[in-house]
Every structure is written in C-alpha cells, then in structure tokens.
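Dear U.,

For the methods section draft, I wanted the exact inputs and outputs in one place so we can describe them consistently. I've listed the two proteins in the order they'll appear in the manuscript figures. Please don't edit the token lines directly; just add comments below if something needs changing.

First protein:
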Amino acid sequence: MKKTAIILGASGLTGGYILERLINDERYDTIKLFSRSKLEGQSNKVKQFIGDLLNLEHFKSDFTADEVYCCIGTTKSKTPDKTRYKKIDYGIPVAATKLAKANHIDTFLVMSSIGANKNSSTFYTKTKGEMEHEVLQGNIKNTVILRPSFIGGHRNEKRALENIGLLIFKMIQPLLIGSLKKYRIIEAKTIAQAMIHLANTTEENEVIVTSNRIQDIGTNN
C-alpha cells in the first residue's frame, strides 16, 4: 500500500526539495501540504490545506498520514518579534507533534538546528532546544530530530546577513575536520534526501541526527 506524507514548510528551501522528491517517489500517492498560501502548479498527488498554522489544531480532521516532515522555521530578520518567533519555531512543531500523536501517525521528522539546547542563554538555540524537548515528550514511535549546520541552496528571498555567513563558512570549510565536520555547510537537498531515507528505513535508530550524519545519510542514500 502506498503512503501519505504531510509536509509543513513546503514553501521553504528544504521543504520544497522534500516535496519535489516525494512527488517523484513511487512509494507515495498522497502528499498533504499545510500552509498559509497555495503553491501553484502542483502534481495531482498533492493536496493543499490553507490556513493559519499558528492554529494548526483546526486542521485536526485532515492531519492524517503515515509520516510528517516538519520543516517550519523563520529568521530574526523576517520575524524580529521574539514572541511571534517562538510561536512559529516552537509552537508549530509542538502542535504538529500533538496532532500526529492524536491521529496515530507513527513517524515524525523535524528540522531543528545545530547547537539546540533548552538550557542555552541564546534565544534561538534555546527555542530550538525547547521545541526538541516537547517533540520528544510526544512519544511518537519513530521520532527523528535533525540538527543541520548552515544550510546552503538557492533561495528566492534575500537574506543578506545569512549570505555573508555562508560565504565566510565556505572559505573555512577545509579547516572543519574531525569533530568540527558538523559545522560544515550542508545543502538543503541533502537534508531532504536524508529525511526521506530516515522515514523509510529501519536501519537507522538515531533520534537526534547531527549535521555531519545528515550529510552522510543524504549523500549515500
């Protein structure tokens, strides 16, 4: 029997690659997108549910699938208000976890970030760490948390500071060896490939996947 997948964040860089791959993956016959606006020109495999993701519980009856790919995230420049920022980066994944649990979805994959730590003194990494903690509290059978480093790939939107950071990181890539490999830039398409593989294998048993492991999995599968 073919599968149904949910993608949260399909309009983003990594979520877009996941969508593209799942459309071409014969294991799936339905891909559900939950978002604020419609993505035009999609395959017949794609079903779109439009609304406010900050009230994700309103989608409960439609939030059914075999697996969830949660790629929700914002940036300081796009969302300078910390209260709203937390509602997005923490609130949406946590709400999705609760819906997945309630609707008996056994596989939940979520993008976090390198350095995530609920005890961090930095707002961004603390928010990601708190999100991870709550997702794990959901006790979904197959929960996978991915912690990528700087994410590379072409974006339609302009992110000046992020682009500068990526340029600097590209220059120092050769120096990031050994335990520092997890800080290397990782391409969004590699993350997408790793997430799909992790959703479809019993060979990996990692709950928290570091950036260098994402690189290995995404490149070799």
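Second protein (the one for the lower panel):
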Amino acid sequence: MIDSLFHLSLHQLRKTAPVVHCITNYVAMDLTANALLAMGARPIMSAAIAEMDELVQVSDALLINIGTLDDTLVQAAQIAGQAMSRLGKPFVLDPVGVQVSHYRLQAALTIINTCHPTVVKGNQSEMDVLLRQITQPTFVAVTTGKKDTIIAANRQEQLEGGSELMTQVTAMGCTAGAMIAAMAAIEPDPFLASCYAMRLMKEAGANAQTTVGLGTFRQRFIDYLSHV
C-alpha cells in the first residue's frame, strides 16, 4: 500500500501546498526551508512567542526541533504544540541531542507530556534515551539511520537506501522532521505520512549521490525533491 500511494501523496502535497511552521534550530533553517519549498510545501520559520497563536491558525503542520535550545524556544514550542494538538493539527518533535544533557532531555519530555506530538523523529541514540523515559508512547516513533524504522501501535516499517553522504551534510536529519510534518499535513495517517517522507528522503539521497563533493550533493538533494 505504501508503494501504491506514495506518488499519489506527493501529487496531493504539491496540489495542496500545506503551510509548515518550523520552530527549528538556526543551523537547519536554510536547508529545511528549501527542501520544503522543493517538495511543494510552504515553510514559515519563527520561534517568536508574540506570534505563536496567529501562526498556529494559518499552519497545516508544525515542526519542533530543539537543536539550538533555550528557554524561549521551549516556551514557544509549548504554546504552538498545545494549540496544534487542541486544533487536531499534526506536529513533529525532533529531540536533537537528548542523550547529551539533562536540560535537553527534560525539554523534550516536557513538550511530549504537555503537547502530545503526532510523530517523534530522532536518530538511534536520541530515540534510545527518550523511549526509555516513556512507558507507553502515543505517537509514531521514527528512528533514522542506515535503516529507518517507523513504528506505530502494531505497525512497523523499515526503509533502506539513501547515501552515506547524508550523514556528512549539516541539517539533513533536521530536514527529515520537516518533511514528515509536510506529509502529515496532507496524509491523515501519521504512520503512512512518516513512511512516505522517509522514503522520499532515502530516494533523494540515493539520487543525489555523487563523487563531486558535499556541496553538490546538497544541491542535487534539493533538485531531486523539486522534480520527483
């Protein structure tokens, strides 16, 4: 079913052009915004508390990424996340670096417990630490790596492919979270939305594979998203 509906979902995303609000880290903003635009989504990049309520109203999906973390971002994330949940709109949490510090782990747990994200996406180290703190996850869990694993209730999907170069380009992992949010804006099943986004991520990485250099790889990654 995933294969048969994948391209239909991409077509629907371009046709709908969902607005994806990204509360994300400074390092990731450029690649994330360009990847969303290439997919056909419309990104908004803001962590300004004063406009959170208004941005929620015009957004179809939300990404919260705690890469460059501070108290203001946590406050903005809680306001936006709670409002999205209240309105029944999807949002993705990317718990960057939760294995590094207690501050990051507590921030991620606070967002999960108060906002109830639709999807939580992280690498193996991040998800191992986070899921040990949560006895009964109510969200779709996406663990990225050489093999991506998507788990929800009694469903599981594993995706292989991509490129080793993806681990050497800053913000690739962060961009994956935004791509999941974009898909979740048009696909009501967050498990399928996560599968579609991660498959697209793998395909774009594989098609961007080049021996020229990382800069060219990054550009070809975006090019693939714009033409698929």
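Candidate sentences for the figure legend, describing the second protein: The longest helix spans residues 190-208. The chain is about 55% helix and 20% strand.

Thanks,
Y.
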